[in-house]
TrEMBL record:
Keywords: Signal. One of its GO terms (molecular function) is metal ion binding. GO terms for biological process: protein histidyl modification to diphthamide. InterPro entries: DPH3/4-like (IPR044248). It comes from the Eukaryota. This is Expp1 protein. The keyword Repressor does not apply. Residues 1-27 form the signal peptide. One of its GO terms (cellular component) is cytosol.
Length: 251
């Protein structure tokens, strides 16, 4: 199992068409499409660019009607550029388990609506359902996202719920179980709200389906087998260890 971490700063939603910051050289990467709002087909060795947008739940629906059609963030009819929405862009390697992180030290998801949608493509647009992240009371920091491909083209993005079996953490974090599916921290405990808890968002990413050569994408099954563990918790422990080492060197 290969595990990688990608940490990309949040950008204004107007940057959806950007590509200049995404010219990442990856060995054997044959996918030269770097915008999350462009269509492409991928194979096992490729990188794949997709985005995650933070906004209010109704901002992702046509005319703001949540009982209507959910549109892709790449669809201009949503008018996200005129709202306070924010976007984070990632380029993981196809069929590798990745741990994506979004630093919330200067960003509060509840201040921009509290929900997020993962997306990719334009003509063949795919998007996830809105996932709750934060409000003034609770903040969810750990997620699992599966990108499903068919013949190398992105078809769907799924948020997979781990339940609350692994809820827990340092004393004082005030962790609770929301709707029997998400572990959450009390928002006032987060550093971006004056508390002492790092509420950066961690997303375990995996793939399913087939690439453009009909090769099976199996990383989701690996995640399923590892669900008794928390990859993000393992990453967090490693990050904290490295941070403390650097602090001791430079302080």
């Amino acid at each position: 199992m290969a595990t990688a971490r990608y940490d990309v700063s949040l950008l204004p939603i107007l940057a959806l068409g950007l590509s200049s910051s995404l010219w990442i050289v990856i060995s054997d990467d044959t996918n030269h499409v770097f915008s999350p709002c462009a269509d492409t087909k991928v194979q096992l060795s490729d990188g794949y660019t997709f985005g995650i947008v933070f906004a209010s739940r109704n901002a992702f629906y046509n005319n703001g009607n949540t009982s209507g059609t959910q549109l892709s963030p790449c669809d201009s009819r949503l008018g996200l550029s005129g709202q306070s929405a924010q976007i984070s862009v990632f380029r993981p390697k196809v069929d590798e388990i990745s741990i994506l992180t979004i630093n919330t030290s200067s960003f509060s998801p509840d201040n921009v609506g509290g929900y997020m949608v993962a997306f990719g493509g334009r003509k063949y647009a795919a998007r996830s359902l809105p996932a709750f992240v934060a409000n003034g009371t609770y903040t969810v920091t750990s997620f699992t996202l599966v990108l499903e491909f068919q013949k190398g083209r992105l078809q769907n993005l799924y948020w997979k719920r781990d339940g609350c079996a692994k809820c827990g953490g340092p004393s004082g974090t005030g962790m609770v179980c929301l709707n029997n599916q998400d572990c959450a921290i009390r928002t006032p405990s987060c550093k971006n709200h004056g508390g002492n808890v790092d509420c950066s968002i961690g997303i375990q990413l995996a793939f399913s389906g087939t690439d453009k050569h009909y090769s099976a994408l199996n990383s989701w099954y690996e995640v399923e087998n590892l669900r008794q563990y928390s990859l993000f918790k393992l990453y967090s422990n490693l990050r904290d260890s490295l941070t403390s080492q650097y602090d001791s060197i430079f302080n």
